[in-house]
Amino acid sequence: MPISWYPGHMHKARRELGSLLRGARIVIEVLDARVPAASSNPLLASMRGNLPLIRVLNKCDLADDSLTAAWQTHFAGLQDGACLSNGRDLPLDRNRLLEQIRHLAGASPGGKAGKPGRIAIVGIPNVGKSSLMNWCIDRKLARTGNTPSVTREQQFTRFAGDWTMVDTPGMLRPKLEDQHAAFLMASIGSIGAAAADTMEVAGFLAGLLLERHRERLEDRYGLETSDATPGKLFDRIAVSRGALKKAGLADPEKAAEILLNDFRAARLGKITLEYPPNPESGQA
How many CB atoms lie within 10 A of CB 45? Predict the structure, then answer.
């Protein structure tokens, strides 16, 4: 079943973001380092216009280090702004961020009537915008959570004295024509279970992992994957983890949840699901 999710509050968020960007000096787009392309909303790119851009590859502690570096090289090659990274094991350098803001937007905020210059933090749901803002200001102001759409209203705070940082609600593209990207976003938890069938999302993720990371699955669950399909994988995970129904049969639904949770928490290791575009072929 195709994934389609654009709740009512996102319409309001889109209108408010348009108004915010008209008075902003710079945009920080937060991307999930595990799916940097899928977590970039093309609608935000069109709304941003010519405003300076800083991309932050967030949750790098969950992503493959070498691919994070490759994505940073790719984004740097676009020459449309800066690209920084952030993760629990190597947090974003606040001074480096401020340096890039001043370099791209000007040393002085220069707001109208002496007002602080605005920094808009944008991105899809559950990508870590609020957590990033809390880190930048070194206190817990913005509400955070592990489910999509925790932030429903714009949240303003001072940053580095003369800037105003604005955390905005997560926003998806209105129509998810690219279903591959939609399933990638659902795999990392940016599209909730109410809009995306858990078994279908887990089956999609299982297919990618069987194609690229069989050894991670074998190490984690102690099972054989040489002949595995997503369905067989769920049955074997269920047996391995004791996720059984009353009759002693494997419970594939519980196994699907186990796989999704293990991937999202990096218990399968640091995995990136998207590769940077190949400069020669023009494909990812």
Answer: 14
Q: Check: CB of residue 205 under 8 Å from CB of residue 260.
A: yes
Domains in the chain (CATH in brackets) are 8-167 (3.40.50.300), 197-264 (1.10.1580.10)
- What average pLDDT does range 49-54 have in this prediction? 94
In the structure encoding, which two tokens stand for residue 168, read together?
A: 């905005």
What integer best gives the mean pLDDT of the chain?
Answer: 88
Residue 163 forms beta bridges with which residues? 117, 159
190: helix, coil or strand?
coil
Residue 190: CB partners within 8 Å, gap ≥ 6? Answer: 32, 39, 124, 125, 126, 127, 148, 170, 172
- CA–centroid distance for 227 within its chain: 32
Using CA atoms, how far residue 270 sits from 2, 91, 102, 213, in Å, is 28, 16, 33, 11
The phi and psi torsions of 68 (rounded to 5 degrees) equal -60, -45
Strands 163-167 vs 82-85: parallel, antiparallel or unpaired = unpaired
Report residue 247 as tokens: 């009759």
Burial category of 194 from C-beta neighbours within 10 Å (exposed 0-12, middle 13-18, buried 19 and up)? exposed
Taking CA atoms, 3 is separated from 72, 177, 182, 200, in Å, by 29, 9, 7, 10
Q: Which residue has the higher pLDDT, 1 or 181?
A: 181
Bridge partner list, 158: 164
Query: SS3 for 210?
Result: helix
The closest of 211, 251, 213 to 231, measured between CA atoms, is: 251
